[in-house]
Structures are given as C-alpha cells and as structure tokens.
Amino acid sequence: MLSFGPDEVGLADRSPCAGIRADLKMCLLSSDCCKKEKKTPRECLKDGLVPTECLQLRQSFFECKRSLLDNRRRFRGHKGY
Hints:
By secondary structure, the chain is mostly helical. It has helices at about 20-30, 30-35, 40-45, 50-70.
C-alpha cells in the first residue's frame, strides 16, 4: 500500500480527505481487475472485484467525507490523515 507521509513528496490536493483518496486510487489501479481485465476503477468497485484492502480504504474514505458534514465532529477534527 502506498501512503504519503508529511515529510515525503506532498500531494497537490490539500483537502482533508486527499490522503485516503490517493491511497484508494493507487490501490484500485494496482488491482488485477484494472491491470489484467482493463476495467475502470469504478467498474471494478461496482462489480466487487477488488481486494479487501481497497474496500476498507473505500469505507475509510466514506467515513472521512461523512465527518466533513457532521457538525458534532467539526470541533474534533476530520478523520483523514
């Protein structure tokens, strides 16, 4: 899994969930569904042909995006990294 630390080369996107989005994107693009079957990442997610690691990253990305809308969590900070 590819992850971006604060001292490494940074992402151009500085949004709160950018790190999880980048990890999810790299996980989907490196899956067999995208490489061998030449499907788009969206088609692979829809068919469920991705590894469990990508599904967990998708759930984390969903939780991060949901925390942006929750007013109770606004003071605690976002769940992204």
